[in-house]
Amino acid sequence: MTTTYTVLDAAGSIEDSDLTIDAAARCVMSYDGHDFAIEPAADGRGFDLFVTEFSRNSTLGGRPMVKSRIFSLADTREAAEADIFKQVIDHADWWKGMEVLTDADYAEREAEFMADA
Questions:
Q1: For residues 21 and 5, is the Cβ–Cβ distance under 8 A?
Q2: Rg value, the chain, Cα
Q3: Burial code of 10-27, b = ≥16 C-beta within 10 A, e = fewer?
Q4: Residue 30 is inside which H or E element, if any?
Q5: Deepest in the core among 56, 68, 79, 116, taking most CB within 10 A?
Q6: Is 104 helix (H, G, I), strand (E, B) or coil?
Q7: pLDDT (tens digit, 9 = 90+) per residue, 51-76?
């Protein structure tokens, strides 16, 4: 069975759910009009994640692209993307306090909340 994910914004509202790990990471990185790119590292070893410093929705219009702290030393783009996407969902709080949970964990959290209500 494939694990699927729910992405929450900083307010705890669902951005999207039933997502693959790739789609969940893309949802986080593109939140609020941000752009991202995964590029080969300048030193030729691995791949780096670049993100826009400002949203396309801001007055600064989605620029500039800056190198993030997330990278992969994988040899292939496919392996690097998988590694980078996993890091993104593990550290979604870097993106405006977002959170990524498995759909099962989210359902459990909601069930506990409803039981306490």
A1: yes
A2: 16
A3: eeeeebebebebbebbbb
A4: none
A5: 68
A6: helix
A7: 988 777 766 665 678 999 999 999 99
